[in-house]
Design a protein that fits this description.
single chain; 276 residues; alpha/beta; 6 helices; 8 strands; globular
Length: 276
């Protein structure tokens, strides 16, 4: 299937990674969707091998994150003597390629992304504001009882005092004013953090917010079915970006290998100016 390619394997930490390689020239790493095999590139890779040193590793196992898969790729390429290289990824392999470029920008010379939408960035969770407690209800203390009137001794020779009503020993206690019901203060809604409107990719989010890749990037996408150009979403991650639509199905590398190989060869060999 990979005519002229050499099979190899390399032991990395707790895994063994198998790969195919062929060709001479600038190094190019080809990554496929995690549900696919190296066969994704079996038409494109031989065409690129005429001008590039092409490496096609096995896809990462499902238990490895994009971050771990990117480290595996760096270790593989360094073990083959490639300190700098370009990366092309298809499907979820494009997300691994982007993670590789974001985490190791000095190693990745050019980045090509095929057949997928941009991933969703990691947005810090919204910080909820603690509710404002309502002030306690104002309770009025009871009015204290009046002091008793002291008894007055009769004055000798004084005129008799007209009969008066007996003076009570104490004034009745003033009734406590009723409690004024206070409406509780409404708790304001917590503030929200709005992420940029980026289409969600097929895998779980995990890309660092605010980090960008500034070297040349190519987005290859299928025009079949009236699909829209995803370049705007990828520009959140990539500064120097060009976008090329190809008439083919979702698996461009398998359904339109000549067009894909031609676009990749031109981009990896000399294309650096961003276009739409």
């Amino acid at each position: 299937m990979f005519d002229g390619f050499q099979q190899g394997r390399v032991d990395l930490w707790e895994i063994t990674l198998c790969f195919q390689r062929a060709g001479h020239g600038p190094a190019v790493l080809l990554l496929q969707d995690h549900t696919r095999t190296q066969a994704t590139w079996h038409h494109v890779a031989p065409l690129l091998a005429a001008d590039f040193a092409v490496v096609c590793p096995d896809p990462p196992t499902p238990d490895r994150t994009d971050h771990e898969a990117a480290l595996d790729c760096v270790a593989l390429m360094k073990s083959l003597g490639h300190d700098e290289f370009s990366v092309a990824g298809q499907g979820t392999g494009a997300h691994v390629a982007l993670r590789l470029a974001l985490n190791h920008p000095t190693l990745v010379e050019r980045l090509a992304l095929l057949d997928t939408d941009p991933p969703t960035p990691d947005v810090p969770p919204t910080q909820a504001t603690a509710p404002i407690p309502a002030p306690p209800t104002e309770a009025t203390a009871p009015v204290p009882a009046a002091r008793p009137t002291p008894a007055t001794a009769p004055i000798p020779g004084a005129a008799p005092t007209p009969a008066t009503a007996p003076v009570p020993t104490a004034l009745p206690t003033t009734a406590t004013r009723p409690t004024v019901a206070t409406a509780p203060h409404p708790t304001p809604p917590p503030p929200t953090t709005t992420a940029p409107p980026i289409p969600a990719g097929p895998r779980a989010p995990g890309m660092p917010v605010g980090r960008r890749f500034f070297r040349p990037t190519l987005v290859l996408w299928s025009t079949a079915g009236g699909r829209m150009d995803p370049a705007a979403g990828w520009r959140v991650w990539c500064e120097d970006l060009r976008s090329v639509g190809i008439d083919g199905g979702h698996r461009l590398a398998e359904e339109a290998p000549d067009e894909v190989a031609a676009a990749l060869g031109e981009f990896l060999g000399q294309g650096t100016n961003p276009v739409s």
